[in-house]
Specification:
The protein is α/β, with parallel strands linked by helices. The chain has five helices and eleven strands.
């Protein structure tokens, strides 16, 4: 099967001279990759291989960046946001986003918000529109990836929340179900190598585009 993936990373922020999410995403943007499943997971697969074409961008770490992806939610089969988590040693597959901005540091536009809604009328929490059971089954034995219930309260979470809110509010779909969207927090390449992170990201994309 074939799938179009909208993929984003972030520019450097805070004291970071580089952002590994930018480096990772830039390796995939404007490329086509085929992922072959070596083992069939517990949940039945539509196809044992997925040809994925990646489009997207590197986002600014500010409000404008958090809003950019909502303009590109048509004509794609999945949305995957990737961002750096400075304090993790594993790839975190984020299951939800919170309707709160509470910044420990200023973003790249100088915003430093405390305990403010992202969207005033929005739900307090929104869950990934990708199939959680599929993700948990696929990565349960992967020592480099974990399921996370806390996407933080910085621009990563803001971006994820805005995307999920748009999907829910405007009814964006892919292949008869809600458009799958997920956020992936990554560690530095010192903890999990760039090649391993790239493989996890491609495998994740190949799983979430399939319908059960």
């Amino acid at each position: 099967m074939k799938a179009q993936i909208w993929l984003t990373g972030f520019e450097p922020f805070g004291h970071n001279a580089e952002n590994p999410s930018q480096q990772l995403v830039e390796r995939l943007l404007n490329t086509t990759r085929t992922h072959h499943f070596v083992e069939t997971p517990a949940n039945a697969l539509e196809s044992t291989s997925v040809e994925m074409t990646f489009s997207g961008m590197v986002l600014s770490v500010d409000e404008a960046g958090s809003r950019r992806s909502v303009e590109y939610l048509t004509g794609v089969d999945a949305v995957v946001h990737v961002g750096l988590h400075e304090n993790t040693e594993k790839v975190q597959l984020e299951m939800s986003a919170s309707n709160e901005n509470h910044f420990r540091i200023a973003d790249n536009s100088g915003r430093q918000i405390s305990k403010a809604f992202i969207i005033e009328s929005g739900d307090s929490q929104l869950h990934t529109t990708a199939d959680r059971d599929t993700i948990e089954s696929a990565f349960s034995s992967n020592d480099d990836a974990i399921i996370s219930e806390d996407c933080g309260r910085f621009v990563c979470n803001e971006t994820y929340y805005r995307t999920l809110h748009s999907i829910n509010a405007q009814g964006f779909q892919s292949r008869g179900r809600a458009l799958p969207a997920i956020f992936v927090h990554i560690p530095s390449f010192n903890h999990v190598s760039e090649e391993v992170q790239l493989e996890i990201l491609c495998e994740l994309c190949a799983h979430i585009v399939q319908t059960l």
